[in-house]
Please model this.
Amino acid sequence: MAQPLPPVPRASVEAYRAAIAKAIAEGCDADDLTLRLTMRDESGLRRDRAVGVDEISFVGGEMRFHGVKVVSGGVQVSILDRGTANAAS
Model:
């Protein structure tokens, strides 16, 4: 009989906030950052009641969280891409 897969770890809104704040504190510009989320994490971010209306925006067909562009899908684990060869979560 097949064994169930272990649950996929999900990043939290607090982790996204902290990663963005850390990157900006280290000199990164929010426009250079991309929050690459799994489709599940992106959906969770949209629906999370802990996310304030001032933290998230949907303008011109683009989603932004704390001024950082959000891209959904194409990753197995959500990460903050700093636009360099090294991405930090």
